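fwd from M.: "can u put these together and see what the complex looks like"

so here's what she sent:
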Amino acid sequence: MTVLVLAEHDKLDLNPSVYQAVSAAQAWATSVDLLIVGEATEALAKQAAKINGLQRILTVESAHLKHLLAEDVANIVVGIANDYQVILAAHSSFSRNVLPHVSALLDVAMVTDVLKIKGDNTYTRSIYAGNLHTTVQSTDNIQVLTVHASNFAIAEQSENATAEIFSLAAPVATNKVRWVSEEQSQSARPALGSAKVVISGGRSLGSANDFEKTLSPLADKLGAALGATRSAVDAGYAPNEIQVGQTGIVVAPDLYFAIGISGAIQHTYGMKDSKVIVAINQDPDAPIFQVADYGLVADLFEAVPEIIDSISSK
Amino acid sequence: MKILVAVKRVVDYNIKVHVKKDGSDVDIAGVKMGANPFDENAIEEALRLKEKGLVSEIVAVSLGSSANQDVLRHALAMGVDRSILIQTDSVLQPLGVAKLLKAVVELEKPALILLGKQAIDSDAGQTGQILAALLGYGQGTFVSNINIENDEAIVTREIDGGTEVIAVGLPAVLTTDLRLNEPRFVKLPNLMMARKKSIQTITATELNVDITPRLKLINVSEPSARKAGIKVSNVQELLQKLKDLEGVTL
Ligand SMILES: Cc1cc2nc3c(=O)[nH]c(=O)nc-3n(C[C@H](O)[C@H](O)[C@H](O)COP(=O)(O)OP(=O)(O)OC[C@H]3O[C@@H](n4cnc5c(N)ncnc54)[C@H](O)[C@@H]3O)c2cc1C
Ligand SMILES: Nc1ncnc2c1ncn2[C@@H]1O[C@H](COP(=O)(O)O)[C@@H](O)[C@H]1O
């Protein structure tokens, strides 16, 4: 019995969620392999070799894998799938693109965004934007899952980890899809998905200019990432890729500031696992106060500058 | 070019659903239902492509009980040309849905198949990718822009940290992000007209595919709520509490 973890990376580094996916895989108390697919995988494999508890690191390298198209990655996974009882990855736009495709080719059900792995192929996940939890049991002989990374510990690393690295031949390109271009947001701030502090703003910021002017100084002071509600993104106050929520990014930082955010379930889905939540809203009945540890009923345009001043004067 | 749009009937996104008393399932009796929001983006995009003269016919398909006629009427009222109900009272899961949709694709032979990127009830986000794999078509997921050029769909994908543009050869399966467009409102006369249009019904059994659920539902529960928080009366108290109770010094 073995588990395969599909690694996500940005060509230079493994995504931090890989470490959580590996520890999720260890729930089966069996051998865990990691698959790294890309144009150049040597440096990534070296990083992975430090993760404790990995049996093997499988690398598949080819020029056409510079940009990871779902069809090509799925082909590679399916090619080795029969050696595994479980195939999983951290839930992200990468794994959501690839793993359902894999599950179809294997003719098995996939379980999306698993919160908790129980015995007997049984999993808890959330439905209705996190409003409810459901427990399901898979009847298939291969389990394909994405896991909710923040619910799992970070696998430990050490210099004397013992994984062996094997390189596998790449199948030919599927050529159904042509990669054209990519645009990654340029930000000097920490990545939203792994930041320790997140400052999020809502539509109430009123303009792109005020969003930036009001929240950036606080984010800079705290070394925080910026987040936003869908309404703020739709209004053009904040870029798409910082939307937090059901249809954006799920974050679980040590400290989350919800500033001028009403607290719709689609938004709280993406931040309610944060360790400490602070909400600032002028409406005492705003639903955000139901998930906040510390609620301040105030005008954000007064409260935020006051926080910045207090920090600065120390 | 023909477009097939898959429309799921789900609980209205404004409604907070609850669990049945025995915890066996979600209680949706008497709850307001409607088309999955992402599927409305898919319908809207199909209409816009048709308005550009790129599309000859738009067919909407929904899988489920006869109650699903309401979302198909909604699609007709928005402006799709035809609609098909694949009727079944069985429990449907993404793999089964995709197998049924594959059978519909084989009947209708669309050049483009549009689905929502996820259904807001199950939050699975799988069906489009499964369908693409079953059909052997290229897939474009989470798309926020579509251009049809020379037998390719050039699409912008919303990915973590940014966007990506890919060209998917037709026939293709695309799944829509909310940012793709703003679905139009349905005008009352159109709704009245849609009431009179006929909906083609095919039973799932006729399509002869295995839709047996692979996931057994064990239970549904309300997640434990966060412990109740406190209100602070000013910024200084907030900073003090963060320091004293959480050990966080800003
Ligand atoms: C299918 C679907 C998916 C969705 N996915 C997401 C998602 O992923 N993420 C997401 O965020 N949303 C999502 N939404 C949208 C969500 O339902 C809400 O509409 C959105 O989160 C509201 O954003 P908001 O809090 O910025 O705006 P509003 O709801 O308009 O709230 C603004 C808040 O600001 C407060 N306020 C106003 N002025 C001030 C001031 N000067 N000082 C302090 N407070 C002030 C108000 O009291 C109010 O509470 C989704 C919706 C749908 C239908
Ligand atoms: N019963 C259904 N009828 C029609 N379309 C469906 C059905 N279930 C899923 N879909 C389509 O598949 C998309 C993704 O659903 P899911 O994979 O369940 O999150 C939806 O947005 C629909 O376009």
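replying to her w this: The pocket of adenosine monophosphate (ligand 2) is lined by residues B 6-8, 36, 38-39, 62-64, 92, 94, 97, 115-116, 118-119, 122, 124-128 (CB under 6 Å).
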